Sequence to fold (170 residues):
Amino acid sequence: GVIVLAAAQSVPFLRRRQQPAAVLALAGAALAVKYAAGLNIWSAGAAVLAAAYGLGAYGSNSVRRAGRALAACALLAVFITLPADHGSHDPAIACALLAIALGMGEVTSAHRDTAAAAARHVQDMERARLARELHDVVAHQLSAIAVQAGAARLAAAGDFREIRRLMTDR
Fold:
């Protein structure tokens, strides 16, 4: 049974980026079973915290919104359990750690979004620079073609002095 619980709290982490809510649910279930059975809950507690971080870091917007609500509930539970618990702060600490793990995941996600936006901005700036350079090259080539066409027209008319003036003004 202990091996099954260890697998239930560990194996789902292979899918933590694709299904963070399911990983958190399985880790939480393993924690609840270990707590009810009177087993050591430290590894399951760590798994729940890691899964909570994953929920904040890799969850979709709606899942992250639910994670924010969960973090708010956890913080509320801290303030409720602190005065109610006579001397033991374990539940309050557990709720605070859960809120912190969810919040750190949110911060990670926000940093990743900011970095992606900065990379997109750099790409857009480089595209604009290349477009300006390409425009300048094409404009120069077209003006050279226009000058050469004018010179050819004058050459056909036999005005070589005017051709020399056009070519030196260029």
